[in-house]
Amino acid sequence: MEWNFKTAEELATALRAGDVTSAELTDEAIARIERDDRAINAICVPDFDRARAAARDADRARARGEDRPLLGIPVTVKESYDIAGLPTSWGMPQHRDHRPAEDAVQVSRLRAAGAVVLGKTNVPLGLQDIQTFNEIHGTTNNPWDHGRTSGGSSGGSAAALASGFGALSIGSDLAGSLRTPAHFCGIYAHKPTLGLAATRGMAPPATPALPADHDLAVVGPMARSARDLTLLLDVMAGPDPLTHGVAYDLTLPPARHERLCDFRVLVLDEHPFIPTGAAVRAGVNRVADALADGGARVERHSPLLPDPAEAAMLYRQFLFSGSAARFPVEEHEQLRARAAGLSADDRSLEASLLRGMVLSHRDWIEANGRRELHRQGWRRLFAEFDAVVCPITPTPAFPHDHNPDPLGRRIDIDGVEYPYFDQLVWAGVATMPGLPATAVPAGRSPEGLPVGVQLIGPMFEDRTPLRLAELLEQRIGGFRAPE
Fold this sequence. Notes:
Pfam families: Amidase. The chain has helices spanning about 10-15, 20-40, 50-65, 105-110, 155-160, 180-185, 225-235, 280-295, 310-325, 330-340, 350-355, 360-385, 425-430, 465-475, and strands at about 45, 75-80, 115-120, 135, 140, 140, 145-150, 170-175, 190, 220-225, 265, 295-300, 385-390, 410-415, 415-420, 435-445, 450-455. The protein is an alpha+beta fold. It has an eleven-stranded mixed sheet with strand order 1-3-2-8-10-9-16-17-13-11-12, sandwiched between helices. A two-stranded antiparallel sheet has the order 4-5.
């Protein structure tokens, strides 16, 4: 039997029944990687010898009667996570030989759950791109069209899953880095509520692996089915044992509803700053129709929605202030001078990017106060709705663009070019207020490329969009292997 495209849930059932061993699954996964990854380039740091040893250990544990959530299931890990003894470079050449001594907390949780780690997946330089390429490991191609990107920054993980290289993967998300690769590669991903899953050991190689609380960034699961997302999130979720975990236990509330007909959903397909391409709009409408056909209450407008224009501006301020925080002093002063020259009434996305790069702590406090008002607005909205459906980016996967000046790149939306980073506004809808968002497949473009949408839920009610994702998978289908 071909096991490589089975879900983790299916593999767990087969392992418990004795229909297959972890050693067999691992050997089959490694054989597929060795055969097919030359064209995809998803697995940048293989760890096959240790994977085979872990698989044998898993089989022995099962023979002793043990049964853990991921026991014996082959998985991959984004390169940016520390794995003891393996390089963690974040694609930065100066750190190509950095080898941490300890596993990231999420890698430790994978191992404790019994997972077999096949290796690490490729990332863009410093995790700061919507594509996946770097000088050390090269370019990861989209399994559906090798001339297009797999997305970023968890593009290697998404491409690996779409190619049958392991049943699960773990990634991270600051600017759609879980959701965009899922959308581009036709798989599932979940951006958890901010702070839900510990991030220690997912830090740049030049910095110590400390249990820091991040402003926007999260870590989360990637899979080929919605139910697998929940399985992996249950392994990942919970506070860091060095900080909040000393006093807090995690208890996520159940999904608000079990039946599709009980859900109340707000559907969005327009943003004030960027148009939605026809292929993505069709995907949103496909999901909206499936919801309505299943009896859900579907609305297209609500006065309760926090102002999306202000939300996008706030998001870009937070996002780019973080990305520019470690710029050299001289470069920072040049940016400050450019920002000072902006007109006070310039409310463009480009102006928000520049202002964000030189944001002072005083300005950050003011912006954070506005963010709290948005969070309150979302709480009011989620008293009337259970989820929001919207795009992840305006287009399906775009052709590779390695222009060394990212600000000079453009994104083509139905024949019209827009600034490259403007496509991040949809990712920011959930990221800025820290809401959970589940990326789900929503069909194909006319060119045959995957199209996904995101299901945004209430803060710390991650099981609600995850359950809605399961119900949609039953109605419109889910992952399909590349043709």
